[in-house]
Specification:
Layout (H helix, E strand, L loop, with lengths): L15 E7 L1 H7 L6 E5 L15 E3 L5 E8 L6 E7 L8 E4 L6 E6 L6 E10 L6 E2 L4 E4 L1
Parallel strand pairs: 1-4, 3-10
Antiparallel strand pairs: 1-2, 4-7, 5-8, 6-7, 8-9, 8-10
């Protein structure tokens, strides 16, 4: 009986995905994100906290790749992250577009361990020209 050669496990790590779920109608009516933003990430098992709030605390360490994306709570509403404001000594997120679409995301690699680094997201919502920034800050924690 022959045995199949064992597949080598990939050493490439998946990025930590940080998703912002936005109540666009509520945010546009209020003119701010307070109470209209629900943040989540894929690193809960490593100790991330604050899920479903505007103050997500993502557990991350040097070398981790972070991917920020946004979803609209209402299926017919438009939402996109316009900017990720974070100390460039820690991370320099870059805006990308999924191939064959107009859907954007932001990706960056953590340059050093983050003790407690706050960041702010700015969103384009609906047909509003000016982005709306988060009222409270999420953070990366080591």
């Amino acid at each position: 009986m022959t045995t199949k050669p064992r597949q080598r496990e990939s050493t490439a790590k998946r990025p930590i995905s940080i998703t912002a779920v936005v109540d666009c109608v509520g945010a546009l009516a209020a003119g701010n994100m307070r109470g209209h933003l629900y943040m989540y990430d894929t690193n809960k098992a490593a100790g991330s906290a604050g899920f479903g709030t505007e103050q997500l605390r993502t557990r991350a360490k040097k070398g981790d790749q972070l991917l920020w994306n946004a979803l609209a709570l209402e299926c017919e509403a438009y939402v996109a992250i316009d900017d990720v404001v974070i100390d460039s000594d820690i991370c320099e997120p870059e805006r990308k577009v999924y191939p064959g679409t107009d859907v954007t995301y932001w990706i960056g690699t953590l340059k050093k361990d983050a003790a407690d680094v706050s960041y702010q997201l700015k969103f384009k919502l609906g047909t509003r020209d000016e982005p709306i920034a988060t009222t409270l800050s999420s953070s990366l924690v080591g």
